[in-house]
Design goal:
By secondary structure, this protein is mainly α. It contains 6 helices and no strands. The model has no long low-confidence stretch (mean pLDDT about 90).
């Protein structure tokens, strides 16, 4: 997740009781597994093109948020343009 979203916000980290096992006091990852570099959702999606890809990435980004309150609800996701737009061929 860090590779795709960047580091989590400090206020989010402080919600967890054990965050200091994985992050330092400045919010930097200190786990034993290295974070992959140069990853992006845009580059990872290889099957869609044009408007379909753009809408899909917006849909994914609306779900992939560190802070749960910033994520779309299931109802909002069902109304998302990516799910409700005809597929371009």
């Amino acid at each position: 997740m860090i590779a795709y979203l960047g580091p989590p916000p400090m206020e989010f980290l402080h919600r967890g009781k054990e965050y200091s096992e994985y992050f330092d006091k400045d919010g930097n990852w200190n786990g034993f597994i290295a974070i992959p570099q140069n990853l992006s959702l845009e580059d990872s999606e290889e099957n869609l093109k044009g408007k379909n890809k753009e809408l899909f990435l917006q849909f994914m980004k609306s779900m992939l948020r560190w802070v749960p309150e910033e994520r779309k609800t299931a109802k909002e996701l069902l109304e998302d343009p990516w799910l409700n737009t005809p597929v371009e061929t």
